[in-house]
Amino acid sequence: MSLEGRGLRRGPRSFRDHVRVARWNSFRTHGDRGLAEAGNPHHRARVEYSEKTILVHLSDEDGPGWTCLAVDRETRRYAVSQGRRQMDAASDAYARLYG
What we know:
Layout: H1 15-21, E1 27-30, E2 34-37, E3 40-49, E4 53-59, E5 66-72, E6 78-83, H2 86-98
Antiparallel strand pairs: 1-2, 2-3, 3-4, 4-5, 5-6
């Protein structure tokens, strides 16, 4: 039986299909070094980098926690971590990547 026959809808087959059906919004500048969702200043994003690593910080939708993506610039290996504080998530993601 197909997914549709079970009452489940099949998702978009590609990113392009998803763009056609979903409304996408953008983050706007928030202070000197960050971005925030328009209409929800608690949902923030920040990117920082060194010669070796790129860190992408994303706050929870309501702001109480953080997700951090650490990417090695040379190999593109990555690690992801979550924490209550931005520094905790970043430190753990960095340690997972290089530890």
